[in-house]
């Protein structure tokens, strides 16, 4: 059996092992990009780190989806540098990969594809599958890889996207999710209109038949005089 260890652009320390065919084993070199399945439905572009015959012991290796390059996009010296950066800065190889490569090189299932409006494309030069994607982007501002898979009715679409990038027909961006959500606390205070005694007494008179509301307003008035706010529950 033939295997490759792949760097995937996610913050996990270990590399992931995938199985390859004999013909792929003869062709693949470290530093090439491969499209690999991850989890139940995600697809990532990974960098081949090592080619070998050692089967993983903890899990059954999945097959790669496809090879994306004919020659390595990352050379051996750069892979050694990634190793050093990962060790020195105590980060994962996936983090180093994501920071080192342009987003167009890291196609994944959360990648957003849009039409490149900076160039004019001769649509007659596009292959059928390329044209379907390009035509869809005339009607929709952006597509995800899963959308393109649905349009083309096939799973392996990264090679189509790669060709469209090379023809400058599309642009690629990463969809970023904001993980940090600030904790917000709501406060209330008495309106500045009632900060004078005259307006405040008029308000009290208006609330003469609403004792609970009067108590709330009195509390707010107290905090207002002492330059405090009251937390809302």
UniProtKB/TrEMBL annotation:
* Record's keyword terms, sorted: ATP-binding, DNA-binding, Helicase, Hydrolase, Nucleotide-binding
- Stored InterPro entries: PriA_3primeBD, PriA_3primeBD_sf
The yes or no answer to whether the keyword Amino-acid biosynthesis is present is: no
Q: Which GO MF terms does the UniProt record name?
A: 3'-5' DNA helicase activity; ATP binding; DNA binding
Domain of life (superkingdom): Bacteria
- GO terms for biological process, alphabetical: DNA recombination; DNA replication initiation; double-strand break repair
**What are the residue boundaries of the Primosomal protein N' 3' DNA-binding domain, all occurrences included?**
5-102
The answer, when asked if DNA-binding is one of the entry's keywords, is yes
Q: State the protein's name.
A: Helicase PriA essential for oriC/DnaA-independent DNA replication
Name the source organism: Algibacter lectus
Q: What is the lineage of its organism?
A: Bacteria, Pseudomonadati, Bacteroidota, Flavobacteriia, Flavobacteriales
């Amino acid at each position: 059996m033939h295997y490759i260890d792949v760097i995937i652009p996610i913050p996990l320390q270990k590399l992931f092992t995938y199985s390859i065919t004999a013909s792929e084993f003869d062709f693949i070199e470290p530093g090439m990009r491969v499209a690999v399945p991850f989890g139940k439905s995600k697809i990532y572009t990974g960098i081949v780190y090592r080619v070998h015959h050692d089967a993983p012991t903890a899990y059954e290796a999945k097959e790669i989806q496809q090879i994306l390059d004919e020659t390595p996009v990352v050379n051996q010296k750069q892979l050694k540098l990634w190793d050093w950066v990962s060790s020195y800065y105590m980060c994962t190889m996936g983090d180093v990969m994501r920071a080192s490569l342009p987003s167009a090189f890291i196609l994944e299932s959360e990648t957003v594809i849009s039409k490149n409006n900076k160039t004019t494309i001769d649509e007659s030069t596009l292959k059928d599958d390329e044209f379907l994607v390009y035509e869809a982007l005339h009607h929709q501002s952006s597509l995800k890889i899963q959308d393109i898979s649905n349009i083309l009715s096939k799973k392996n679409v990264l090679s189509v996207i790669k060709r469209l990038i090379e023809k400058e027909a599309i642009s690629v961006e990463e969809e970023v999710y904001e993980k940090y959500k600030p904790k917000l606390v709501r406060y209330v205070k008495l309106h500045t209109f009632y900060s004078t005694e005259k307006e405040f007494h008029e308000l009290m008179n208006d609330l003469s038949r609403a004792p609970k509301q009067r108590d709330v307003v009195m509390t707010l008035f107290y905090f207002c005089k002492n330059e405090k706010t009251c937390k809302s529950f």
